[in-house]
Amino acid sequence: MNHYAFSKLINLSLLITLVISIIYLVIGLIIGESYDLAISYFIGALTNILGLTLIKNDVNKKFDRVKNQKHAFGFTGFLLRFVIYGVVLYISTQKQTLNPYILVTGFFTVRIAIFIFSFKYRND
């Protein structure tokens, strides 16, 4: 993945995370759940950003590996991301302070950033 595009996506994802977390914080304070909604979204978004970083590392390392190791390495990276998402989601269902539905919306942060990025730079 292009380093420029990757850094732009990460920056855009962090900006979206900040804005939506503030919105959830305001909503949470209004309905009396204090910071629970904002923390849930923030954890989901950071997990998603971590997943994107792991994908970037997988793609970069795949080009450096021998052909026989490419498939095993890609599957291992996929399995690692799957386990991370599962553990974070499981913890959110077990903790009373985290909202798993809001956390799942955080998993879509990078997808939103990709959509905005591709719309903004569609002519480049």
Layout of helices and strands:
Blueprint: H1 3-31, H2 36-62, H3 67-94, H4 100-106, H5 109-120
Helix pairs in contact: 1-2, 1-5, 2-3, 2-4
Keywords:
124 residues; mainly alpha; 5 helices; 83% helix; flat
Task: Give the C-alpha Rg.
Answer: 17 Å
Helix content: over 70%
Tell me how many strands there are. 0
Anisotropy-based shape: flat
* Poorly predicted residue ranges: none
Strand content: under 5%
Total helices: the number is: 5
Number of domains: 1
Whole-number mean pLDDT: 85
User: Mind summarizing the main beta sheet?
Assistant: none
Spatial gap, N to C terminus = 16 Å
Order of helices and strands: HHHHH
Find the structural class using helix and strand composition: mainly alpha
Q: Could you describe the 3D structure shown?
A:
The chain is 83% helix and 0% strand. It is mostly helical. Helix 1 crosses helix 5 (109-120).
